Amino acid sequence: MITALSRKPAMVIERRIRILFYCLFLLTALAAMLASCSNGEKVYKIGVSQCSKGRWRDKVNNEMLAAQHLYEQNVKVSIASSDDDTQQQINQIDSLVDSGIDLLVVAPNEAAPIAKAIARVKEKGIPVICFDRKIETDDYTAFIGGNNVEAGKAVAVNAIDVAHSLMAGGHKPFVLEVTAAMSSTPARERHQGFEQTMKGHDELEYEWREGDWSSEETYRIVADQIKTGHLPDIVFCHNDGMATGAYKAVVETGTEGKVRIMGIDGMPGEGLDYVQFGHQIATYVYPTGGEEIIRLALDILTGKPYERENTLQGILVVPENVWPVTTTTNELLKQNENLVTIQNKLEDYFGLYNVQGKIILACLFAMLLLAVALLLIWRAVRQTRKANRRIQAMHDEQTAFYTNARHQLRTPLTLVAGPVKQIQEAHVLKGEWQEIMDIVSRNVAQLETVVSDVLNFKMGEAQTVVDDETVESVMAQKSSEENLKETRLALMKQDDTEELSNVLIVDDNADMRRYLRTLLADKFYVLEAPDGQSGLKLARECVPDIVVSDVMMPVMDGLQFCKKLKEDGVTSHIPVILLTARSTDSQQMEGYEHGADAYLTKPFNAQLLVARIYNLLKNRQQLGHPAEAKTEEPKSLLSTQDKLFFDTLKEVFLRNMSNPELKMDDLGDELGMSRVQLYRKVKALTGISPVELLREMRLQRAHTLINTTTKSISEIAYEVGFHTPSYFSNCFKKQFGQYPTELRENN
Q1: What is the pLDDT of residues 473-489, one digit of tens each?
Q2: Where are the beta strands (DSSP E) in 444-596?
């Protein structure tokens, strides 16, 4: 009761502190939640997957980034490029979807492979806009981009006009088209428009070669054509980047001015400049439409009407109109870049504004938290002062309690210790009774020390006692190791005399081992070990008939010792009794789960322990003497380990049965056991020695051979491993009550 009272003020303080931290946590969480709140406006997340990089696609990207702030809706555009890698684009599309986008804008690198990835996006209910390029299925929401067929036609018309101007003197102009990769829809559609227009003009020579979107491949194709000697008058490339490769081939072959180059894209710094510089005779300005893409996306996301097919118009640029087009385009690009810069700064300003607002809000809540914390701390201080006063009062009560307890405990201890000392000094006891009295004297002295330490709080002295016990345990362990060596020879002799059953005592308390020895020494052959590890080693060496073990021990406790004992093929049959102060049902269940056969709690009744040992040994003897032949073990009563051992033993016997020189040491080697281990294991399981068991198996085999074969008695005797037929006949008569010849005559 005093202990409970002494804890109450501390519990009150602890409860107040917990309440303080709980309130601080709630207020902090509330402040963080309010500080992170925005106006709650829906943010539309648009993911863009570009098939490649370049000036044209950079222009599209900048236009989309600028357009995300032009409308009343809140839009966030995220752009990724696959660098002409189809698999990388598929992975990017999956990543954009996983990031939680509301709509996907994609320029497919290849029409067929990307279609499957877009189908997965549509299955998840996410709208898809294809721009610039299409896929081979209809699994998209809308398309927006230039008309590639019309672009091809426009370039073809200009090429025809230029070619007609070169027909003087009967020359038949040669027009060469270098396409991009035909796996993409822009290449197929541009080729379609160009080829359809050229087919109606037989006065011109027209051929086409498939390349890819790179300038390197275009350079190779044009250079190879020029080297054939059949010089093209006009080369049409599917974009201005490819046209740079064609121009490089023309320059290197010295045909500049003879070969005229045309392209598509019409970007400042590329196609428009090439026309101005005279590298190309024309370029088609292919529309980017970044702003139109964002407007179409918002129409889809907000449920407004929209067109599924959206065509953007382009324009053909030739030397006659290149200057005004270039000037206008450059001005628009500059304005777009300025707009993006202004929008980025506005985002930074708004971000700073939001952060400042959150900081102010957080400061207000921090001040509120501080006020609440000060209030709670003040109340906690008051409670602490009250608690200190209560603790002082209880301390006085405890002092009075311990003073009274000291008297109440020391009086009976004095009345026990005094007579015990007198009996010892009188030397009236002899032998084991004197040893028991020595055990009582030592433990009474230890109890006096423990009581004194508890009442006077002498923890240092208590530690000294523990250290002394540890030293004693170490000394006992060394003694046990010496005992192991001494008992090996004795056990070898005992196996032949069959005098007493072996009991192995495993306990870290030396006095407990001495006491158990005095109880059991006149009835059993007693072995000792101070811990589970030493006990396991001793059990494997000596194979005792039963084990009595403590649970709480150093090095290896009794539960682990019992478990390892039951898992070992040499010792699995040995019954185990656990002695411990652990008395709850769950603790006893734990002991049985580790393989214990019996469980006695301390303090235990000595007669009950002896009776339990006899009972377990009797059960083991009954198990080893089944009603059926001893060559057949009662498998339903054996553990898994013992069944495995018995099956292996019979297999070894049968394999070596015909060898009359078979020794038990040889059998032990095959089974991985010493002679002592094999003898005691077999004797415990069958009730007979390994030699007797082998002889019975030989006789049983001979009995079967006499009844089922026509072999002579001598042949059978030698086959089952007997030295002489006469000795075999005598053993057979003793086992079955008749000679082998009589058994054969009767059958």
Answers
A1: 455 455 555 655 555 55
A2: 502-506, 525-529, 546-550, 576-580
